[in-house]
Amino acid sequence: MGYFRFRKTLSVLPGVKVNLSKTGVSTSVGGKGATLNIGHGKKNVTLGIPGTGLSYRTQASSQLVIAAVVVVILVGIAYLIQPELVKAALHWWQPKWF
């Protein structure tokens, strides 16, 4: 038997998203190719090849989560001061075909 699912994603800052679903709230940090997802009592890192549908997911260590939170805070502060510079820095590595 089928069931309905609900999910809504809100972009908070470049590279930071809040995901809302009927089971709770989670946060995603990252972008194409690498994402850290924290929520529902789980911490996962996903590495993927954009455009292919191929990815690898594993649990994240507490140290990685703390480091990601610190980076997000620093990027958030920088974004409030120089948004264009932060956007350029976050997208410099992305190949043009993605």
Explained architecture:
- The chain is of the alpha+beta class and about 100 residues long.
- The protein has one domain (about 5-90).
- The chain is about 30% helix and about 40% strand.
- It contains two helices and six strands.
- A six-stranded antiparallel β-sheet has the order 1-2-3-4-5-6, covered by helices on one side.
- β2 and β3 (about 25-30) form a beta hairpin.
- α1 (about 60-80) crosses α2.
- The chain is globular.
- The protein starts with 6 loop residues before the first strand and ends in a 7-residue tail after the last helix.
- The model has no long low-confidence stretch (mean pLDDT about 75).
Summarize the structure.
This protein is of the alpha+beta class.
Q: State the secondary-structure class.
A: alpha+beta
The number of helical elements comes to 2
What is the mean pLDDT? 77
Unreliably modeled segments: none
Write down the Rg. 15 Å
Entry keywords:
98 residues, alpha+beta, 2 helices, 6 strands, 42% strand, globular
Sequence-ordered SSE layout with sheet pairings:
Layout (H helix, E strand, L loop, with lengths): L6 E7 L2 E6 L2 E8 L2 E6 L2 E8 L4 E6 L2 H20 L1 H9 L7
Antiparallel strand pairs: 1-2, 2-3, 3-4, 4-5, 5-6
Helix pairs in contact: 1-2
